[in-house]
Write a structure and sequence with these properties.
Number of strands: 10
Distance between the termini: 7 Å
Number of domains: 1
CATH superfamily: Dihydropteroate synthase-like
CATH class: Alpha Beta
CATH architecture: Alpha-Beta Barrel
Number of helices: 9
Strand content: 15-25%
Structural class: alpha/beta
Length: about 290
């Protein structure tokens, strides 16, 4: 069986041990590609998040701005208005740090990150690698949360405009190596960083497939890797599936990534992912 690991987040708290970690997606948005509008109010979002926790999520990943291709940006004020009440309500439900799940916020904005970290979030999931709002790096260095470092060549509203790479895997490896050094120099503990190659972010189908075929290359940097491909358009392109028909493909891909050593998985259907990953853990190197 795959040996369990811990992950250190804000305040030096460790989540785990677990062979795999599941990020349950909580979209407090009207326009996310898969479930936009289903949980765009605080009460509905909190209820949904607690359901995901019961189903096995280790991390509740709260987002207030859609990052789908060509999505319109959201102001910092609106993003805080959407996510902060959810963070506060879930923080109050935990009764402290004793429960086995943590709060993450999906943001690239320094003001949002500071507000939610001050309110009790322990992780920042950043699609921009601190490039859209450079002040975010200072916030991450100050609070030292768990940090998801993701690759994207541009903002959601422009990232799918003719993305091109010479060698997508090598270019992302170079990107991660540079960004890891920058963050560590700024004061972010390296053990709090995980890597997300950004499936679907400024990448064509061939780029996504190349990344997934060589996912183990990213582990050479010494940090865990996130698989974040839940119900994404690549399954529609490959298999002709609508957004609400991609659950089986998502589970198959999740199992394959788990078998390759990917420890973190960001998903919509937590119950299914927990079943998939528990089975993968039992069969690992069997």
């Amino acid at each position: 069986m795959l040996p369990p690991i811990h992950w250190e987040i804000a305040g030096g708290r460790a989540i785990g041990p677990a062979p795999f970690f599941i990020f349950g997606i909580v979209n407090v948005t009207p326009d996310s590609f898969y479930d936009g509008g289903r949980h765009d109010g605080p009460d509905s979002a909190v209820s949904h998040a607690l359901q995901l926790a019961e189903q096995g999520a280790h991390v509740l990943d709260i987002g207030g701005e859609s990052s789908r291709p060509y999505a319109d940006p959201v102001s910092q004020e609106d993003e805080i208005r959407r996510v902060l009440p959810v963070v506060k309500a879930l923080r109050d439900r935990t009764g402290g740090n004793g429960l086995p799940w943590a709060l993450s916020v999906d943001t690239y904005k320094s003001g949002t990150a500071a507000a939610v970290l001050e309110a009790g979030a322990g992780i920042i999931n950043d699609i921009s690698a601190c490039s859209f709002d450079p002040a975010l790096k200072d916030v991450i260095a100050q609070y030292k949360p768990g940090y998801v470092l993701m690759h994207s060549p541009g903002r959601p509203e422009t990232m799918q405009d003719k993305p091109a790479y010479g060698n997508v895997v090598e270019e992302i490896l170079d990107f991660f190596e540079k960004k890891l050094k920058e963050l560590v120099v700024a004061g972010v503990p390296e053990q709090r960083i995980i890597l997300d190659p950004g499936i679907g972010f400024g990448k064509l189908l061939e780029h996504n497939l190349d990344i997934l075929r060589h996912i183990d290359r990213f582990m050479s940097l010494g940090r865990p890797v996130m698989g974040a491909l839940s119900n994404k358009s690549m399954f529609g392109q490959l298999l002709g599936l609508a957004a609400d028909e991609r659950q089986n493909a998502t589970q198959a891909a999740t199992a394959l990534l788990a078998a390759r050593g990917v420890r973190f998985h960001r998903v919509h259907e937590v119950r299914l992912a927990a079943q998939t990953l528990n089975l993968a853990a039992e069969l690992y190197n069997a």
